[in-house]
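Follow-up to my earlier ticket, as requested here are the two runs.
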Amino acid sequence: MDYELAIIGAGPAGYSAGIYAGRSGINAVVLDKVGGGGLAMVSPNIENYAGFESISGMDLMEKMQKHASKYSDI
């Protein structure tokens, strides 16, 4: 498949970029050499992230990946 945009890194910023690209009609792919989530995946607790008072890094990244996959190939 051909993509208009390749996003390198599947951490919070990469997932956000994929969501915004897809919502803008840009055919995007999010790539990561290790898998999704970045360093946030190993954080036991993330506090005060928009929309979440407290959430584990793994849970947050799973939610972001699910949201991003609606708009971009992950």
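Run two:
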Amino acid sequence: MDEVKVHKKILLTLSGVAVIVLCYYAGGFLSKLVHGFISPSVMGMLVLFGLLKSGIVKREWVEIVAQFFLDNLMLFFIPVTAGVALVPFSSIQNDLIAIVVSVSVSSFLVLWVVGKIADKFESMRDGNE
């Protein structure tokens, strides 16, 4: 790999980090405007999505950093899993049914919506719609 490619990769990585961090902070600002109804991270993802769709941010600028996050996604779930595992059963015992139902329903809804969206994109890619 020659020096120019290395410098380009470094610049793309730094620009990707900068764009993602700025989108997160913009999401935090927007989240405060709606009084925390939507979390800053979700608002930041919506900001990033809007910037990507509008062409203001190019996919290449964030691709390296986004791929790094996707490749290491399991690491982000370890603190949540450890936190849930450390909760004493007696503190959630009274709400166990509500927790199980809400986790089951929300998981089903997420899978269903993602499946529908994937079907839609697949049919659009094949030219059926």
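The only thing I checked on run two: The two ends are 43 Å apart (CA to CA). Let me know what else you need.
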